[in-house]
Amino acid sequence: MDQESITIIDNRTDAQYHIPLFKGCVRAADLRQIKVQTEDFGMMTYDPAFMNTASCQSSITYIDGEKGILRYRGYPIEELAQNCTFLEVAYLILNGELPNSAELQEWIDRVKHHTMIHETTKKFLEGFRYDAHPMGMVISTVAALSTVYPECRDVTDRETRRKEITRLIAKMPTICAYAYRHHFGLPYIYPDNDLSFTENFMNMMWKMVEPKYVANKTLARALDILFILHADHEQNCSTNTMRAVGSSLADPYVSVAAAAAALSGPLHGGANEEVLRMLDEIGTKDNIPAFIKHVKDGKGKLMGFGHRVYKNYDPRARIIKWTADQVFKVTGRNAKLEIAIELERIALEDEYFVKRKLYPNVDFYSGIIYQAMGFRPDLFTVLFSIPRVVGWLAQWEEMLEDHEQKIARPRQIYTGHDERHFVPMDKRGTGQPAQAVAQA
Ligand code: SDX
């Protein structure tokens, strides 16, 4: 008997099935042979929210939730955050290897070549109310870009894909900055290709009347590290969305827009904005015990805590906490940080959180840094989307090149009515069961 297999005994029929394992997993399709009647559809798995289902094979990101490990293409996130720039890591995630100096410079030049957006796209942005949430603006504008580059629909052509991937990575900061400037009625700042990826984003965000924007190097580096930390995270909700939408061969712009829409939810990328709202609601350290009780009574969540995969400290949160110290040396300490640190200290000692393995995740401290750097809370998820577009696109391309993948179309367990028949209007609401009408 092949040791890489399991044997299932169906107690309904006493039949035995020897199921080969695939990399330690059961292929769900192999369960279809388990039937009671020959004409049965066969056995499925039932797994709401994919709590225990691998939807793909991927070589991009590795996470070990119990050990708090995160690696991009095998490199520990701690080493990448310490030694690389964001664009260098973006190259690694997209191509599988760290670039040499010539490859990196060519990649940087290519991205810089695509940072501008079509002038008509600015008019599209003008259509939003001044107080439109920037995430809604970004999602809509990214989708609209598919009309600016109609050739993007040829997703099976690698050269076309790579050009659109570069365009999206290059244009996300521009769109995000313009969404911010629109809110304040400020003129849009054109990209300055003398600056690094992150410094140029800060330039488009904050340049006023000075002839040339000069970024604070410490803050620019901190933002670069934050972008590295947010670049990919295997099959999270928004990446799963990117793969599902992309599996229908939809173009990369509408697929990224769908992924960004998923990211905007408060349980996912919207959590960093919710953390700030929570810290504002707590107000002072003295109020922390009452808030913890509120959470333990099931009346709310400790935003920025918990994770589907990490049942240990999110390694990104640890790096972000270190980065916060660097930022606050420039901006001055933030009262919210003190509340957050005290909140974390209490939560990590409290049985309710310990039993549920709830630790700070990537969103717990990131919002505090962003606010200290001058970003408004409604921009935090937008800031998450800028680097995460790299992960979405790398995972999208991996899906398209995976011969096992096809259009995503899960099954269901039907729990609705058996067949029933049309009820004429004058018979409805009589409480008379429909089938009686059919016989009438
Ligand atoms: C991101 O998937 C990714 O990789 C995502 C991400 C990425 O890089 O792409 O890492 C980014 O989305 C980080 C997560 C940001 N979200 C938040 O911080 C929101 C608060 N966290 C929770 O909503 C929650 O922890 C999730 C959504 C992150 C995870 O939810 P799960 O895995 O479905 O866990 P669960 O809801 O089943 O919770 C298990 C238990 C429950 O208690 P019981 O019903 O067993 O009594 O833990 C409780 C939950 O009520 N719980 C929390 C809690 N998170 C879970 N209780 C209080 N506060 C929390 N934050």
**Dominant shape:** globular
Estimate the mean pLDDT confidence.
95
The stretches of 5 or more residues where confidence is low (pLDDT under 50) are none
Fourth-level CATH superfamily of the domain at 66-270 and 372-400: Citrate Synthase, domain 1
What fold name stands as the CATH topology of the domain at 66-270 and 372-400? Answer: Citrate Synthase, domain 1
Overall structural class, as computed from helix and strand content, comes to: mainly alpha
Give a description of the structure.
This protein is mostly helical. Among the domains are: 46 residues, no CATH class; 234 residues, Orthogonal Bundle (Citrate Synthase, domain 1), CATH 1.10.580. The longest helix has 26 residues. The protein is globular and about 80 Å long.
Question: Which helices and strands appear, and what pairs or packs with what?
Answer:
Blueprint: E1 5-10, E2 15-22, E3 25-26, E4 61-64, E5 69-72, E6 75-76, H1 77-83, H2 86-95, H3 101-112, H4 119-126, H5 134-148, H6 158-183, H7 197-206, H8 217-229, H9 237-246, H10 252-263, H11 271-282, H12 288-296, H13 315-331, H14 335-349, H15 351-355, H16 362-373, H17 380-400, H18 434-439
Antiparallel strand pairs: 1-2, 2-3, 4-5, 5-6
The chain binds s-citryldethia Coenzyme A (SDX).
